[in-house]
Amino acid sequence: MKRWLRPLLLVLLLVLAIIAPLGQGNYIVYTLTSWLIFSIAAMGLNLTLGYAGQISLAQASFMAIGAYTTALLTLAGWHWVLAMPLGLILCFAVGLLLGYPALRVKGHFLAFVTLAFNTLVFLILRNEEWLTGGSYGLVGMPRPDFGLFSTMKQLPFYYFTLGITVIASLVMWGIVRSPWGRAFKALRENPVRAESLGVDTRRITLLAFAIGSVYGGLAGALITPLVQFIEPGSFGVGHSLRILLMVVVGGAGYFFGPFLGAGVVIMLPEMLRFTAGYYLIIYSALVIVMLVFVPSGLIGIGGRLREKFRPRREVRADMREGARLQ
Amino acid sequence: MSQLLQVLLSGLATGSIYALVAIGFTLVWQAAQTVNFAQGEFVMLPAFFVLVAMGYFGLPFLPALLVGLVLSVLVLGVLFKKLIAEPILPHGGITLIIATMALGIFLKESVKEFYSAEAQPFPSIFPNDPIDIFGAVVSLQDLFNLAISLGVVVVLTLFLNRTRTGRCMQATAQNPAVAEILGVDVKRMILYTFLINAALAALASFLITPVYLAKFSNGETLGLIAFIAAIVGGFNQIRGALVGGLLIGVLDNLTATYVTAQYRAALPLVLLIVIIMLRPQGLMGTSEGRSV
Hints:
By secondary structure, chain A is mainly α. Chain A is built from 15 helices and four strands.
């Protein structure tokens, strides 16, 4: 890609995101906002899955931690701007605590531990009524108000979310580009080699998971003022799976994969509305078919087409296998 | 005292069914490095095959069970391997794991939409009469379940250790490349593993569904418990999965009776985290010795 093309595309996308909700009804603006929020959650999981190569099935429970912390504090009169960071810190700490034992061992233990953790969080949210309101949940959380800029209406709240999404993406871009972020990639491509080059695999993976969880928390902190009603059912294992599939469908390991994946997962039910109850059946079948033919996700289709028409020059094809020796 | 015995026995009975699911899971994990996240749905589905055979084709119960078993082996064994595991495995383990998650959703939603969202009664193979053992009232069904599951585990262990095919399967699980060099038909052995897994899942389904009723969402808890049993017991051992399954069955019953029913579902999860922290290779497992 030409050097000036990428920034131009980004600016174009941003302009599109700014004008998209203008003149639309409340429902569409609401859907766009939740697309942004789920993109943030998926972006975090992309760091864990796409870059560090570990499966986390607890992104929804980190959203729950962010959402409930923000909700309880804002209901107690705190401003959102003060409540949100607390939720993020909590997510980071829980992420470290949870990831530490799971990442000590080889294999996909993190997947099981996070699966168990999500169920545990769901049980706590449902059973500890004094704190979380049980299955009735919490209602009436205020939206943040910045004096001149109030987000009570749907459109200002969209722009508020868009602003946060842009900041979160820039931070993520910084993380992925830093030498430290490149260590993630090295890790995913070849863990043995990465370790032999002095990368502390375990620490890096753990941090990737914890940072990914913080993004889940941020998404949760945004869901609270958007919906103004939270209950345990919105943070079950099924939702973690949904976020995971967003990352995979969009393209794990690609920076813009999560945005695409979240868009597909949020918009597809609208498009497949005529299929009524069969939506999930069709969707899961499509995911399996996609994994068989294009395992790198929708973004990967583009790359594959490009390679078909303009094959990359490969100096020594045998090196490709050689690098993978284990 | 008699209450404790009662709780222990029924815990063992449920635990032995968990063990069946966990063993199939362990076998597939060893042979194909596949963590099957649809394992719970694999146990949910066969009961519905039987219900369809009885309800739509009017078969009596026992032939319907046979049909259910054959269909399960075909669909969950052969088709699963040919259509999903085989084409996706070259793309990497994680891709396959995610595909099994999607498969789980697919099976669950299909049953919900095409059969019923309501729990269906499922006939029991054995009479449900209560009998009295040293003052403890235990259902005959529980005792039969326990006996059958343990019997199957013994037969399976004998098959894997004493027959030529079984040993070839073990060799494949330990080192496919070397097994291939030594003349083992690795692909066939992996297929056998998938078939055995499907048969075990079907058996577990027939034994546990009369207790839980047939419902599309049965797989969620069953799958999770089977993973936990496999990890707690030790991922690379059949007897590990057996111990893990029995342990979770008993502990689950004990907590529900004596500690808290509200957090009953939390116990296996806590057990999982403790085991991973203290003994990641599992209670019976041997360490694989590499951390990367």
